[in-house]
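Q: What would this complex look like in 3D?
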Amino acid sequence: MNKSREIVCIVCPNGCRMNVSYDENNKVTQVENASCKKGEEYAVNEIQCPKRSITSTVGVINGALPLVSVRTDKPVPKEKIAAALEEIRKIRLEAPVKFHQIIMNDLLETGAQLISTKEVARLEKM
Amino acid sequence: MIINKDLVIVGAGPAGLAAAIEAKENGIEDILVVEREPVAGGILNQCIHDGFGIVKFNEALTGPEYARKYIDEAERLQIEIATNTMVQDISSNREVTTISPEGIRTYKAGAIILAMGCRERTRGAICIPGTRPAGVFTAGVAQNLVNIRNIMVGKKIVILGSGDIGLIMARRLTLEGAEVLAVVEKLPYSSGLQRNITQCLEDFGIPLLLSHTVTNIEGHERVKSVTVAKVNEKEDPVRGTSIKFDCDTLILSVGLIPENEVALNAGIILDNVTGGASVDENLQTSIPGIFACGNVLQVHDLVDYVSAEGELAAKSAVSYIKSIKTGEAEITVKAGKGIRYVLPQTISADKDITFSMRVTIPSKRKTIVFKDGEKQLKKKFFMALNPAEMVRIELKSHELKDIRGLEVYIDE
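A: Here is my prediction, written as structure tokens for the whole assembly.
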């Protein structure tokens, strides 16, 4: 049996409403209304293994700021997001934190790295 | 003592930084960027989610990463950014008075670019009845507390307003362990981007209550509950439709206002609809030599276009400083049927112009038309039009040749 679903693309601000047809093995047979390749890819992924990038913050000790913002370097499977955030919340970094510093390798065996998205200087002691 | 500067830029957010870099690359050496925060980057610093830069850099950056590209470039070009410095006053003869821990300074600027951004509407601005407990935040303040200061704002949360910041915060607070009970929207459609409804609400099963509003806030020390009711077409609450949400926090994402107090004091004419300055195609305000760009001119949904506007303002400021004559902007651009506003408000029509506009209501399969009197100059078809999404349409100089007036409207 062929099925179809409407998927709103989140790749870019256009937010294309795509119509995706797929069979019982989740093999995508057709993507309609996608205006680019990335959108088509997203639609296929969304049927087979929906993924999202994670953005969050990590605590910094002795930093000029108490938090450093972080993200995964690629999207991770949606069902692992809650567990990934549990892990991320446990981390404490000692300042300074560099820009795009690798904070964790292979987050929950997703193959994604957790990297910082800003730098946090060490707090100068008075 | 008055310090001379070729160009003074107010604000080191995405608009101001892009303007500074563009001006420097076009040969203006003596630039000062004034920033009231301790660091440059503006609101991007607290927007830790991704999706910035897709138009400009073809990649989905987080806010801090997008800002860093510009901060690094400004540093490389040795552009002077005065942080912790507030502009107190701008005069119509382009004197800028600033206050910082170092004291009060006055600059005489060859040209000024306004890039102050916008601020949020508050509970007071929309007059929500009820008690005045702690636990009512605007979305941007909540974002600053959670993402920068490491202060969690609450455990059980209702969000009023479905603008993008509200949606982004619904996801962020959920990821941080809070329970977001509902996002409540007065209009029958969301005022945020569709992809944010998908990835911020639907992904987490957060209900979006359209045509609803908050009618009461309860609690003394802290919010205990909020009452939500359905609204009719006139946006009045309907009796007997109240739902009470037990919660400790109410977050407001109910609109942004360009922060134009110093512009008003300078005597710059503002547009009643946008809240920003009324400008010509060079982004020049009603005072010659003062230009405006970014969210202080019109509230954007994409930072990429904020940067683009900053660059255009800078090019115009550079021409002004170098005394290059531009055409008199004598043609008024009118927002017609279905269009809430269109920018620029006046044009001289001697060059290519990108018009930006917002529609009044969502619609599908419609054509936006530019006309001069009865003559149609350009038509552009859209699969969908949405008030949340700014529309940009470029007209070439030959399409604008010899026009006497210009009206933009949606063809039925």
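A: To summarize the key features: The mean pLDDT of chain A is 91. Chain A touches chain B at residues 8-13, 15, 17, 52-57, 59, 65-67, 69-71, 78, 81, 85, 99, 117-118 (CB under 8 Å).
Q: Very helpful, thank you.
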